[in-house]
Structure formats: C-alpha cells, structure tokens
Hints:
The chain is mainly β and 694 residues long. Helices cover 1% and strands 47% of the residues. Strands 3, 5, 6, 8, 12, 13, 14 and 16 form an 8-stranded antiparallel beta sheet that branches. A 7-stranded antiparallel beta sheet has the order 2-4-7-15-9-10-11, with no helix packed on it. Strand 52 (576-580) and strand 53 form a beta hairpin.
Amino acid sequence: xxxxxxxxxxxxxxxxxxxxxxxxxxxxxxxxxxxxxxxxxxxxxxxxxxxxxxxxxxxxxxxxxxxxxxxxxxxxxxxxxxxxxxxxxxxxxxxxxxxxxxxxxxxxxxxxxxxxxxxxxxxxxxxxxxxxxxxxxxxxxxxxxxxxxxxxxxxxxxxxxxxxxxxxxxxxxxxxxxxxxxxxxxxxxxxxxxxxxxxxxxxxxxxxxxxxxxxxxxxxxxxxxxxxxxxxxxxxxxxxxxxxxxxxxxxxxxxxxxxxxxxxxxxxxxxxxxxxxxxxxxxxxxxxxxxxxxxxxxxxxxxxxxxxxxxxxxxxxxxxxxxxxxxxxxxxxxxxxxxxxxxxxxxxxxxxxxxxxxxxxxxxxxxxxxxxxxxxxxxxxxxxxxxxxxxxxxxxxxxxxxxxxxxxxxxxxxxxxxxxxxxxxxxxxxxxxxxxxxxxxxxxxxxxxxxxxxxxxxxxxxxxxxxxxxxxxxxxxxxxxxxxxxxxxxxxxxxxxxxxxxxxxxxxxxxxxxxxxxxxxxxxxxxxxxxxxxxxxxxxxxxxxxxxxxxxxxxxxxxxxxxxxxxxxxxxxxxxxxxxxxxxxxxxxxxxxxxxxxxxxxxxxxxxxxxxxxxxxxxxxxxxxxxxxxxxxxxxxxxxxxxxxxxxxxxxxxxxxxxxxxxxxxxxxxxxxxxxxxxxxxxxxxxxxxxxxx
Length: 694
C-alpha cells in the first residue's frame, strides 16, 4: 500500500509501510513523512547518501568522512549526512521507529538520531555512538552495548506537552524521563550520522512514524526549502498535510491568522532575509499551530526552484510514470536515470512524464533559466518490482467546490478491482474502510480517500479528493472593538459582524462557539481578567462565519514613589533645607522654612508615563507647621493641608486624581496659605510623593 505524498527539492518522500503491533505504538496512528537530505554543502547527495533495495526493503545509507565540510559554508557545526524529517509538532506524543545498523569505524560520539527543537541545542533525545556502545547524551550510562555491525530496532518517542521522552531498543524500554523544553519549542525528527573522526556510516530501514489521532486539528504548515542561509534567493513553498487547508503567511515578523497575512496561492520568491510565518486553517476544524522558518541569503539573484518529482521515493509494483516540475515558471529541465548527474548540457531534456521501469532507478533532475542561478540537483529513489499494481481510483465528479450535495462515483480502470474508502481522513486498506458498492453521497464538506486492490496484484496508491459543499454565502467574521491586547483597566468589548441581521455567540472559557454553544451576544462584553474571547456569526441564508479569536490580558497600572529630597526642590520666598529622620520614608525630610503665606517649594519629578494617577502626599506633623495647598503642573489638586499637630506623626493624604496626556516630567508645588492659630511657625515639610496608576 502506497501513499501519494508531495515531493520537494532534495526532499524524498518515505513510503509508509503497514502498521506493526509492538506495544509502544498501541493506541497510535501511523503516518507518512518526507525528509530533506542534509549533507556537506560542497558534495552531491549521492556522494554521501544512497537508497538501496535490500531483499525488497528500501534501505537508506548515510556516511560522513573525515575532512568533510559542514551543512552550510558559514556553519561552524560538525559535518553530517542526515535525514531531516519535515513534519514539525509542538504538542502530543510522536514516535520514530526504524531498524538501524551502525558500521564498524563509526564512533567518537557520532550522533545517529535526534528529537530536535527549533530552540538551538534543546534536543529531547540525542542518541550517540561511543566506545561501541549507544548512549543518550543526557546520561552517562549506555542504553545499549556492543552495537557495532548489528541491526537494532529502535523506537524514540517524545511528548512536548508533558516533556516525556522514551526510548525502546529491540523491544525493551531503556529510557523514560522528563525533558521539558522552552515554551514555544517546535520539534522534529532527524536520523543519520553527525560528527566524525575518520568515517561514520549508518543504515536505516523500515522507518515509520506514529502519532495520536488528531482528527479535527489542521496540521501545521511546513516549508521548502528548510530554514537556512542560502547563496541565492529562493522560491518558498508552504504546505500542510491536511487536505483542503487554507494557508496565510507573513514575512514582516507579524503573526498571521485566518484573517491577516498573505493568502498562500503558490510558491513565492524571497530575495532578502526574512522570517516566514504561516498558519493553516479549514472550516469545521481547529486551526493549526503557527510555524516559522528563518531565511538568509548571500545574494539577491534568484536561484531556480529545485525540480519536484510527482512520485515519492519508495518500492512499487510495476512501471510508474513520474512528472517533474519546478515552481519557477518557464524553466528548462534535464534529468537522468542512469546514475549520472544531469547538467544544463547533459541528461535528457524533459518534455513530459518519465516512465520508470523495473529495477532500481535513481531519478536526478536539474532546472535552469537564463538570468537565474541553476537549481540544485534533486533526487528520488525508486525500486520497481515485477508485480503490476492496480490502477488508482478516480472520483466523479472530481474534487472541488459545489453548491449542492453530490453523489460521487469511485472507479478503477483495473477490471475486477475492489475499492474501499473512508470519509474521516484515515487511510483505507484491503481490510479498513467501507467497501464501495454505489456512489457515495456527499452533502457536507469532506474528503474521500480510496484504495483499489485485486488478488494477484499490488494495491493501488491511496488517493484523496476533497469536496466543499458551499451553496450559501458565508457570514462575515465577528470583529472585536477594542481588539485583543494588553490593558491596564477592564474593557467593554463590542462584537459586530458586517452581515446584516447576523446573530453572534461568544465564549470566554477557551471553547469554540457555534450556533448553539456559547453566550448569545446582546451588548458589550465586560472583561477584567486574562481571557481568550471567541465569537462566531450566523444568519439564515448564510454559512456560519469563521471563528474570531483574540486574547486579552490585564496588568495593574504602575505606581511611582518619589522621595521629596531626590526631586531637586527649589524654594520661592524662603529657604529649603533637609533633616535626617530615621522614620522618614527615605530617611530624610525636606523643609520649606516659610515665614508667611505665599512662599512655596517646587519639586520636579522624573518622567512619568501618560495616564491617570491618584496623587498621595506624605509629611510629618509638628507644632511649628503651617498650612498649604498642592498644585501639579500649575493646577490645584485637593484641598488645603494643615501640617500642625500637638504631637509629631507621619501622615499620608490622598489629594485626588491627575491625568497626564503624554509621558514626561511634572512639577509639584506646595504653597503656604497660612497657619493654625496654635502653630508657632509657617514651616512645611515633605517626605514622599506617590502616583498610583488608575
């Protein structure tokens, strides 16, 4: 059974084999993945990486030699030949499974397998060979001994949600530990050989991948080529394994959403350093995670996009037809099937699909165009056995968008072939799925997946067709005002839809609203705590809108305390002085030695952010104190303060609120207005000024 998968430049699709029943994979679903060969920048892939047929099994061979260069010309890392698997994930457990053979001479802390993250060296699993033993580099004891020249069955699993990392070797669990990684980390699998003393050579076969069923969640976008520093500008391809998913992306550092960012319609040319960030989404499913890829270029001259083979690397029964294309328009392509490397003048000029006959074939291709740098040579490996395969199923009407329900006929040109199909996104087989007997009614958007099979023949490829039934216009998505963000005060959020007469339901508990779930919107939603607001609009005669989602966070406004003696006070009509006082806020009191009304002391604050603040004033009472008012930037605030008292005490008064329209410094002026008849002097003092954000 074979899966049709996208093939990207220097990216080889792994043929998915049948599910095994080993205990570690119980409860998980097998999926297929593609990989990119990472090798010394100055060598051809075939110099360090090959695929071969070993007793009917596709085997991948990776090697590195002493003196080889790194992956990029500017890289300071060790040389490698690795299969970098393209699927990224950041939640839920995924497993990598393979049979592995490490050749004699492979040693010196050579890494053969990693669960790698996008946060530098934050690997969750890092299997290395040293002294003929196998280690997880996070531990000092070997997890397998005397491994050189012996086949091992290895399973590595990691769950970013829990941090649980597990390893099995030959059916025995040898490691189970928690390795949490920085928030936002995205993980992927790599296997091959990394770091070399003289020669490292490893072999991998029966590679499989497993994940918990994520039905209903759009798979995250991936990028081709992978993030790196390139000699020339590149054509960027973005894809999601979820059939029918829509993708939006940005290149300016902002985060795309279902309503923001550029709608992805096909490969685009990137000529300057940028972070490409993308999200994938589909009606009726949960949006994917946001994924990013960082690109740098040494030249703005475009490089022709690498040729793509329409058929993934794998083992096939009977001859296969392979189309070759480049994302760069109007290119010329040359290819070879005899093991030689094509150039702009050697190899067969591509004019139409290539027939791959019986035996082992390496298809290599190069694309070129006047005024642009030639593409890299891309590779795909095919092993063609003699048993003919059943012709792939076809769908009538074909995949597409329709305004009414459809009855879809599924047929195979192979006489006597049986067909099974699924409608839930799972892969059918000879024993899995519904047996096709009559046209399948499709009344709502869904994907049909089918396989054809016949006794004495190899199964067809698994093929899919996505149908969107959309007879009605879609209601406009809700809009929030104010929008999501960080606030210092509670917000009343209005929710509107551009569709007249539409009803709106919303949630604040993280759940997804629908026509029947969530609170019916009737007026502004009062938010005062951290929350994610989600809303949907619906109306008779319209398809429900997409769900609008925005996060609101609330942080308390700032408070600023200023010691009077630190504000460079100046007196008017009287002198100023200070006195040390252990009970004062800052250990010092500031005085205006006033002798009568009208005399004042002015303090200048440091810069204060714009906003509204409650003003508080702390002073010390005494029998020598006068009365005064307070002006901030010349505006009177609060009433007269009488600092006279028969006993000494430290008092704090609240004068009221003041609003600063812009950030900046401000003046605080205390002006003597008189004194209590019992007071002996007009002296006033200041200890501390406080601005409490509102």
